[in-house]
Amino acid sequence: MLWLLKGMTRTLVELLHIVAGVVATAFIASLAVWAVPVAGRTIWWVAYFSMLAVVFMGIRPLRMAWKTDRARRNTPPTADE
Q1: Distance in angstroms (rounded) separating the CA atoms of residues 22 and 48
Q2: Residue 11 in contact with residue 69, Cβ under 8 Å?
Q3: pLDDT number for residue 14
Q4: Would you call 13 helix, strand, or coil by DSSP?
Q5: Is the Cβ–Cβ distance between 18 and 54 less than 8 Å?
Q6: What gap in Å lies between CA 8 and CA 21, rounded to an integer?
Q7: What is the pLDDT of residue 22?
Q8: CA distance 32 to 72
Q9: Which of 6, 7, 17, 42 would be a feasible disulfide site paired with 73, CB 3.0-4.6 Å?
Q10: Quick check: 69 and 14 in contact, CB under 8 A?
């Protein structure tokens, strides 16, 4: 399985950043709902939109990393590698 990701390290790092942002948002929202249960519905709506923002803000860096990984994979190896 790891051989599939060998040349896609930048892309994998960007995906992990997006996932970490979504998980952190969900964790913070769940703590906020625990602290203020009356506002639970509003807190989750804000959290969902925050998660969408995290994903949308990660698209451009993800595309740039993917292009860089593809370009690096398509170039012939040098003597240093």
Answers
A1: 9
A2: yes
A3: 94
A4: helix
A5: yes
A6: 20
A7: 97
A8: 43
A9: 7
A10: no
Q: Which residues of the chain have pLDDT under 50?
A: none
Q: Which two tokens stand for residue 60?
A: 């451009």
Q: What is the DSSP string of 21-80?
A: HHHHHHHHHHHHHHH-GGGHHHHHHHHHHHHHHHHHHHHHHHHHHHHHHHHHHHSPP-TT
Which amino acid belongs to residue 37? P
* pLDDT at residue 74, as a whole number: 75
46 burial level (CB within 10 Å; 0-12, 13-18, 19+): middle
Instruction: Decide: helix, strand or coil at residue 7.
Output: coil
Query: pTM value?
Result: 0.81
What tokens were used for 4? 């599939």
